[in-house]
Amino acid sequence: QVQLVESGGGLVQPGGSLVLSCTTSGIDFSASDMAWYRQAPGKERELVARITGEGQTKYTETVKGRFNISRDNAKSTVYLRMNFLKPEDTATYFCHRPKGYYIGKFFAIDYWGQGTQVTVSS
């Protein structure tokens, strides 16, 4: 059974920091790209950051320099460290294992976590 379980969300003041975690089971984690998405009320879900199995990363422009995605393959866990948080970062954050071809393996199914709420407010 595949599970992606996010944790670490909460209420934080502008300028503060949070670290989100996504612990996975049932997937070939070390070979998989992993990603964080977010969705604010009334808006479409958007990609925040993505990391390959080899550790290459990319970020949406609005979080570059503030957010950092990382992974621990031994723990099958991906992290999102968020610094200098702004009110516009308020959203539900989702962990995602996208389908695709990675490191010589093909994964046919997308998997999503249930989401964790991040609220940035004074």
N→C terminal distance = 40 Å
* Residue windows where pLDDT falls under 50 for at least 5 positions: none
Structural class: mainly beta
Q: Report helical residue fraction.
A: under 10%
- Give the tally of β-strands: 13
Strand content: over 45%
Structure description:
The protein has 122 residues and is mostly beta strands. It contains no helices and 13 strands. The chain has strands spanning 3-7, 10-12, 18-25, 34-39, 46-51, 57-59, 67-72, 77-82, 91-97, 100-102, 105-107, 111-112, 116-120. The strands form three sheets. Strands 2, 4, 5, 6, 9, 12 and 13 form a seven-stranded mixed sheet that branches. A four-stranded antiparallel sheet has the order 1-3-8-7, with no helix packed on it. Strand 7 and strand 8 form a beta hairpin.
List strands and helices in order, with pairings.
Elements (H helix, E strand, L loop, with lengths): L2 E5 L2 E3 L5 E8 L8 E6 L6 E6 L5 E3 L7 E6 L4 E6 L8 E7 L2 E3 L2 E3 L3 E2 L3 E5 L2
Parallel strand pairs: 2-13
Antiparallel strand pairs: 1-3, 3-8, 4-5, 4-9, 5-6, 7-8, 9-12, 9-13, 10-11
Can you tag this structure with a few keywords?
122 residues
Question: Can you give me a brief rundown of this structure?
Answer:
The chain is mainly beta and 122 residues long.
